[in-house]
Amino acid sequence: MARVCGLGLLLVLLLPMVGTSMPGTMVRLNKATLSYVSEFGKAPLQQALNVTLPYFLDQSRKILQPTRIQILNVNVARLHLKFLADFGVHMFAAATFNFKVLRVPEPLVLTMPVVLLADARVAQGSIQTPVVSISACSTLFGNINVLEDSNSASPTLLVLLQKHIKAVLSNKLCLSISNLVQGLNVHLGTLIGLNPVGPESQIRYSMVSAPTITDDYISLDINAVLFLLGKPIVLPVDTTPFMVPLHVDTKDTMATVGLSKDLFDSALLLLQKAGSLNLDITGQLNSDDNPLNTSALGQLIPEVARQFPVPMPVVLKVRLGATPVVTLHTNNATLQLQPSIEVLVAASNSAFQSLFSLDVVVHLSLQFSVSKVRLQGTTSVLGDVQLTVASSNVGSIDMDQMHTLVGTVFEKPLLDHLNALLGIGIALPNVVNLHYASPKVFVYEGYVVVSSGLFYQR
User: Fold this and answer.
1) How far is CA 223 from CA 154, 240, 324, 428, in A?
2) Cβ atoms within 10 Å of 143's Cβ, excluding its own
3) Angle CA 121–373–278, to nearest 5
4) Among 177, 264, 343, 396, fewest CB within 10 Å belongs to which?
5) Ramachandran angles phi, psi of 380, nearest 5°
6) Helix (H/G/I), strand (E/B), else coil: 275
7) Are strands 332-337 and 65-84 parallel, antiparallel or unpaired?
8) What domains does the chain contain, in order, with CATH numbers?
């Protein structure tokens, strides 16, 4: 526990915070999440409640006889969790304990119902992750009974056994619940872990304030920081807080994750700074269906045919100087790219000679999906690609013909390249082993919402 927290604190110290320029993210966990945790949590709770009992001094006999008591099993029949507004979570658990009293000459098998009540505060920890702590815990014990197929016991012995077991379990069960929660905190601490975006880039999430808790949900205000070569990607400062309206939520959804436009702007700025959006489009000289050679180009531009009577392969160097612009409107996400294309041909000395360069504007439709914990995207071209000549070493260029050529050799490689990058995706806020289940992605004015179930995989 100390090792994990120490590592988390070290990360916070080493990776600088960048104030209000960090993209905002919101995670809202609804009542459906508690229902899932209640069902999933029965097994670990049963295991935690299976504690060791001290020997019992049997005072029903003339000679005090230390007697061993074992918990055979614990069955949590009901586990119910509910939100406590402005505080945390209340737990109610109804369990049945089965004991074996190793009494001579014949052992006894006993059963006892137990109800556990606990209040857990949810707060912001020192390493900017959620922290859960037990603030109140109590146990209610039913009457102890001998199982039907066990040996009989005197009422006096049963009273003494019940008194002994209750005295021991009153403290041990609450301590076990507290220890279980401490293990949960170690798990929650993985929220601040770095997730790769690319070979030299990462994203890290952290809480920026105490959670908001109502009777219906808990909401976490989270900042995302993207790093390129260890340095944070910083956007112009925007002090407007990011919030997701309640109306986008549904009661049946476990988790609602709101992603501000700033997050997408940061991700695209990172890709642009890393050079990941640049690509080279090359043609094969012997290919019949690829017009990226001087012979095909010479049919459109006479000066190319004059300078290169022998066919040579042509290369399109696509470079993105301007940062891509994402626009989010209700049910509609678009991406605008403004790359430059330099058309090059390999000269006789293996150096590249520039023929001409184009300024390009491409509008793309953007669709989102989620796989496990990663938000992915795919694109398609919207309308016509806009081309203008930036420079030319081969005289005048007929842009109508050039538009047809560029559309043939440029659009598909660009889409393949972009979709491969966006298909890698970017990690959503997550902790280890917890995945998004059956997620749906909705686009609203200025932000994106992922509405999803949750699935914990051991």
Assistant:
1) 64, 13, 22, 11
2) 10
3) 135
4) 396
5) -145, 150
6) coil
7) unpaired
8) 30-190 (3.15.10.10), 244-251+258-456 (3.15.20.10)
Q: Alpha-carbon dihedral of residues 242, 247, 251, 255, nearest 10 degrees?
A: -20
Alpha-carbon distance of 415 to 281, in angstroms, equals 12
Q: How many CB atoms within 10 Å of residue 306?
A: 11
53 HSE (CA, 13 A, CB side) = 29
The H or E element spanning position 303 is helix 302-307
DSSP state of 129: S
CA distances from 51 to 97, 165, 259 (A): 11, 11, 44
- Give yes or no for a cis peptide into 105 (omega within 30° of 0): yes
Helix (H, G, I), strand (E, B) or coil at 88: strand
SS3 420: helix
Name residue, tokens 């993207």. Answer: 226
Helices marked H in 41-127: 42-49
Question: What is the pTM for the complete model shown?
Answer: 0.86
Residue 237 CB coordination number (10 Å): 10
d(CA 69, CA 107): 10
201, 316, 322, 352, 421 from 275: Cα distances, Å: 12, 16, 11, 21, 12
Q: How many helices (H) and strands (E) does the chain have?
A: 8, 24
End-to-end CA distance of the chain, in Å?
19
pLDDT in single tens digits along all 458 residues of the chain: 333 333 333 333 333 333 334 678 999 999 999 999 999 999 999 999 999 999 887 765 555 678 899 999 999 999 999 999 999 999 999 999 999 988 767 888 999 999 999 999 999 999 999 999 999 999 999 999 887 666 677 788 888 889 999 999 998 999 999 999 999 999 999 999 899 998 889 999 999 999 999 999 999 999 999 999 999 998 776 656 777 776 665 667 899 999 999 999 999 999 999 999 999 998 765 555 678 888 888 988 999 999 999 888 899 999 998 899 999 999 999 999 999 999 999 876 768 899 999 999 999 999 999 999 999 999 999 998 999 999 999 999 888 888 888 888 899 999 999 999 999 999 999 999 999 999 999 999 999 999 999 999 87
Q: CB under 8 Å to 380, separation ≥6 — which residues?
A: 364, 365, 367, 415
Question: What is the maximal distance between C-alpha atoms in the chain?
Answer: 119
Give the C-alpha separation, 186 to 194, whole Å.
Answer: 16
Residue 445, classified by CB atoms within 10 Å of its CB into exposed (0-12), middle (13-18) or buried (19+), is exposed
